[in-house]
Amino acid sequence: MEARVSAITTPRNETAPHRRTKSYGFSRRSLGVELTSHFGCTPGQLTAVRIPTSRGIPKPRNLTEQVDPEHVALIVKKEWKLSYVTPLYQFRHTQLQSYSKQLASFLVAEKQQGVAVEVGQELGFKVVFTAALGLAETEDDAETVLIQIQSKSAFAAEGETAKVVWSGWLSCVSGDVEYLKALPPDFTCLPLFGTSGAESLTTLVMSWFERTFDCYFGPLGINSTNLEWLAALWTGCHSDTNIRYLKLAWTVPAQPPLDVSYTVHPQDAWELWDSIRQESGLRDTVDIEEVNCFIRGLESHFFRHFRIYLSAGTLTKVATSLGSAHKDGKIRIASSDMMTSVLALLTECALLKMPI
Amino acid sequence: MDDSAKQVLRKIIRRIPSNKLQNILSKWEHLSKKQFRSLEFTQAKWLLCDNLLSLCEENDLSMKHVTELEMIYRIENPAQGSWNVCQLIDPSEEAVTVDSLTFKDSFKAHLKHLISHVSVKMKKHEDNAIWIRIAWGDNFTQPNHLNPTYVVHHLQTPYVFVSGLTAKHKPFLHQALIPSTHYGGLKDVHLSGRCLTALRDLLMRQYKQAFPVKHPRLLQEKSPVPSHPNIETEHAKHTEKRLQMAAEAFGEGILPKLETAVYKLETRFRENGMPGRREEPFRGVVKFSSSNLLESLKNCVSSGMASAPVTPLLSSITQKGRNYFVITDKGPGVSHTQGRKI
Amino acid sequence: MSLKPFNKLPELNTANVLLVENEERFQKKLADAIVLLENNVNVIVRLARSLPLPLENAESRPRIDLVVFIVHLNSEQSLLSAETSLKHLDSGYFLGKVCFLVTGARCGTLPYERLTSLKKMAATLNSPLLMTEDKTAEGVNTAAQRVLAVLRVAAGLVPMATGLYLSSLTRCTVPNDPDWQNQD
């Protein structure tokens, strides 16, 4: 994976873009030569983003050493709905205060126009943009931005804490370096957007961003391969933090649809994972082969009892006490230890959805 | 009308959907025709509730009448809560001759003997089922009508269906049921679900079953015949066989409506080509859920998503009438044990 | 016993196609569309779930001119079943008498690896890979037309064209990996 030809072209090039339309890759049943790298294509077929087939094991560390614990607390233990966003034009981390005011007045203006917002006695909204420094892993990553919308009640006394009605964050963790380097200078790439709160507020915030920074939002799902990665990474943490359970949920397309949930005892799950790791030689990195072996093992144990092919269904949800992920793009990170690795995986998913 | 009765009435009215309210209230028979007509059912529910409360005050109704209303609603809509099934065992000779009146008196007496403050209401339904509503108190407090327990028992059968029972009160209920029905004990059948009739049908095998036969015979559901003479199916026989096996395992036609099945696995992990062959069991819990579980499982088998023959773990749901299993290794194959006895 | 392409005599003005699909859903619609579309030639469609085919039918089964594997990308099982079925096909079929039909290739929520491994498989076997859309009537009709086009050639009903010739034009290609270029 060392020698890399630059695989990215962006519209910045004056020449006609190369067609790098194909995505091919490593298959556990591949009939041909096994490749160690894997390129995925963005939907516009003009950009190839590297998808790693092996990932480094996150070392347990205290995230609060590099990130403000208050910021971390804002992200953990909440369920976020994920979207992807294209690079933002002329977004400045130095102007967060001004953005706060602009968004607040935008929300109030929309409300006056009769756009449906929360019914209540809110006089107005107070918006807070904060930069959560320290989450970025490489120097090409832009710093994470946290957004909170607080409602101001008409009857609030002085000094009364405002109620947070909506929160969100934009993040880029370990983004594909070549992609980030190839962006034109005025663009900031924060492709991962997480929201928690009323849907109406989310659409308003998105439309403000679209107007101000000429970007585009879209829904982000987590496909079964990435869910399996998360399951394996979380299970691997059991030796340090008790994951308490490993729960996998599938939906089998019968009439009516059948939901199957398999909750494995954490110690047994860890021992299975550990034996797979031992067999392939303990390394610093985790291969997708090991992840596949782990999940197929669980599926075949299930098959031995029930004779139902789980591979005919779709993996919808993965959960441990460290967090949960749903294929519709919902993520919950319960512990700050694994936060960077999870965000890195999700950033990768978001980058793959870039329209060009 | 005291405050607690009002509170219970409000809760009941809130729970009953607006479209059913008129019907239930007309069956209640504690409002005069004039009062009933004075209620406007198109109003907002809270407004209607206030009007109803004032009418009840006029008629000087008490908690007793309010609980009747709840019972009427519950009997008509048994799918409100989830039901657990128990079975009476060791019948004595008098078990078959128990009649409803004797049972009612005996049950009430036994229960009141165990707990002083308890409110019991019993009603016989058309299909010979006795419905019992119990509001539990203890030695110091009045019965709590906000969380009652419902029990349904068909006299000529050993089955008892219970909904809304806490662990604290379970022994009392059992100790009242056993002597009044003249049985020797009560055990948990490990069957639960929302649809009372489905549970009953499953237990008493009142759904249409298919039995294994040597020659394929007319199944209710057949695989569709190809539409054009130029189209031929290679695996037609296999499809027929799969449909047959699915019907044998789960039944034909309309199947009883179960929602979940839970299997607690404690078998060893023995997959070929995989490391981790240990002697200790690989623990886990598998839960199947669906809007109609048996239909889903049957469809899995007939469409090939489950490979035939149907594993005994799944067919036990209908064969044994239960949906909670603990599976351990016993002997060469994978077998299952009976659930815990109470 | 594997399916052999040339162990039976062909029939006059007839083409036989075998549709193999694990889910047995799309093949029925496709079969209906195929027999309705073709007027000049007698097209027989045989539907199967997987290979090997049941032995009972071996006598009555005519010579199969084209085997079409239908793979649904939303199910891993679909792909696995197609792979195992391939083993039961005589190698003579891979000279232009096999075709792959894929549904769900546009769906962004599916793992990329399935389509890529299928493409690799098709490329290695020198067979065409056709993408289809199975939910609309139009999609089914288009798929039927394309299958018929390949079938006519494979059955020898198109003068001056053979299955092998067509397959060299239509086969699935897999691009070069930039890493490969650097590794020599």
Automatic annotation (TrEMBL), chain A:
Pfam families: CENP-L. GO terms for cellular component: chromosome, centromeric region; nucleus. InterPro entries: CENP-L (IPR025204). It is found in: Chromosome, Centromere; Nucleus. This is Centromere protein L. Belongs to the CENP-L/IML3 family. Keywords: Centromere, Chromosome, Nucleus. Signal peptide: none annotated. Residues 1-23 are annotated as: Disordered. It comes from the Eukaryota.
TrEMBL record, chain B:
The lineage of its organism: Eukaryota, Metazoa, Chordata, Craniata, Vertebrata. This is Centromere protein N. One of its GO terms (biological process) is chromosome segregation. Its main location: nucleus. Keywords: Centromere, Chromosome, Nucleus. GO terms for cellular component: chromosome, centromeric region; nucleoplasm. Transmembrane segments: none annotated. Belongs to the CENP-N/CHL4 family. Pfam families: CENP-N (PF05238). It is found in: Chromosome, Centromere; Nucleus. It comes from the Eukaryota.
Automatic annotation (TrEMBL), chain C:
Pfam families: CENP-M. InterPro entries: Centromere_Cenp-M (IPR020987), P-loop_NTPase (IPR027417). This is Centromere protein M. The keyword Cytoplasm does not apply. It comes from the Eukaryota. The lineage of its organism: Eukaryota, Metazoa, Chordata, Craniata, Vertebrata. GO terms for cellular component: chromosome, centromeric region; nucleus. It is found in: Chromosome, Centromere; Nucleus. PANTHER family: CENTROMERE PROTEIN M (PTHR34436:SF1). It comes from Anguilla anguilla (European freshwater eel). Keywords: Centromere, Chromosome, Nucleus.
